[in-house]
Amino acid sequence: MEGSVSRKLDVKASATKTWTVCGSLLLADIAVAAFPDKYSRYKVLQGDGYAGTIIQVFLAPGVPGPPWYKEEFLVVDDVNRVKIGKVIEGGVLDQGFKSYVAVLNAIEKEGVKDECIIKGTIEYVLNDIAALPLVEQSIEGLYGIMKAVADYVINHNNNKRLNSQT
């Protein structure tokens, strides 16, 4: 069985500023900081945050399932503001998924200054139909990270790093 599921979130910041977070390793930093009950840490195994980067994400003690997973960034497109990451080892692949890809987009709202939409999509192929409930958990987890990114961008709107990108 295969499919995809998406969620969207309105953000009171420009797509450019939002992408500065989504398109970098700062995304992983924010996820770990915002959800210490889910993620304990991550480490970069290869790369600089762009396509070809591989990170290993360690789940917090007590989180059901495998204790870690490896994700490869397949696409980090600064022009179209799209990031595509694929789980390549561990995690959901040990829980009945054959393929698991997360896509993040920062989309400018037409005609509205300093607002955008973050769209998160999970594209999956299941080996085991029993893993289907994990799809909903996964998109809700991604949505939580999207909200944490939005909060970060809004709360750090005067951050020189974010403002230098506009």
UniProtKB/TrEMBL annotation:
GO biological process, one term: defense response
Leader peptide range in chain numbering: none
Keywords: Alkaloid metabolism
Keyword Transcription regulation: no
One Pfam family linked to the record: Bet_v_1
Chain ranges of the Bet v I/Major latex protein domain: 2-125
Any single Gene Ontology cellular-component annotation: nucleus
UniProt keyword tRNA processing, yes or no: no
The organism's place on the tree of life at top rank: Eukaryota
GO terms of molecular function: abscisic acid binding; protein phosphatase inhibitor activity; signaling receptor activity
Family that this chain belongs to: Belongs to the BetVI family.
Protein name (record): Bet v I/Major latex protein domain-containing protein
Organism annotation: Sesamum alatum
Taxon lineage: Eukaryota, Viridiplantae, Streptophyta, Embryophyta, Tracheophyta
